[in-house]
Amino acid sequence: MKQLVFATSNPNKIEEVNQMLDDRFDIIGLKDIGCTEEVPETQETIEGNALQKARYVAEKYKVNCFSEDTGLEIDALDGAPGVYTARYGGPERSAEKNMAKVQRELQGKDKRGAQFKTVIALILDGEEHTFTGIARGTIRKEKSGTDGFGYDPIFAPEGYNITFAEMNSAEKNKISHRGQAVRQLIAFLERRD
Ligand code: IMP
Fold it and tell me: What is the layout of strands, in order, in the sheet containing 155-157?
């Protein structure tokens, strides 16, 4: 079994990823390796942040690890909030405030297209690899659904009449940005075995 540290403190993400991995992989969290400090995330791009987090943990704790960074890119806002997705509505990183700000910014705009982008950065035996997943969709004017987290209640993926928050996590994983990136990570790890 391959042990890998998932460099995130977001329990929603650990749960989503664990659901997709079978028991060939033993995924442990930052707390399991004694990392309780905030991992720096100060880059200008989603890719940059994913790599920064993975490099920090791999170098400081001498482990194989992967990290994940996700952003919401809204067409009518020229790709905003992008790298600022978590704190778009203020420093408290509230999902409600974040969604409210999106609605304010989109007021009067007809274009509602958007995408979630996830970049996973893996550091395995000192080598760096990245995997990108994109889910296209539209921003709904009203929230709908109670599953998921973050912006899920206002994001309806392409080809569906429901939001991510109206899907269970298995349905969401099948099509989501994170699901796609994790499947690429798994395929890569399997080839390396
Ligand atoms: P981070 O990658 O943890 O920095 O997350 C960036 C922001 O995107 C946070 O506000 C998350 O709540 C949000 N986010 C990340 N993944 C998802 C998702 O799958 N659905 C909805 N919001 C998400």
Answer: 25-28, 2-6, 65-74, 113-124, 127-139, 155-157
C-beta 149 within 6 A of ligand 1: yes
Phi, then psi, of 63 in degrees rounded to 5: -130, 160
Segment 141-171, tens digit of pLDDT: 999 999 989 999 999 999 999 999 999 988 9
152 lines ligand 1 (CB under 6 A): yes
Q: How far is the CA of 163 from the centre of ligand 1 (A)?
A: 15
The neighbour count for residue 44, using CB atoms within 10 Å, is 9
Start-to-end C-alpha separation, the chain: 10
Alpha carbons 147 and 165: distance in angstroms, whole number: 4
Domains of the chain with bracketed CATH: 2-192 (3.90.950.10)
- pTM beyond 0.90: yes
Q: How many CB atoms are located within 10 Å of the residue 107 CB?
A: 8
CB-CB contact of 157 with 148 (8 Å) = no
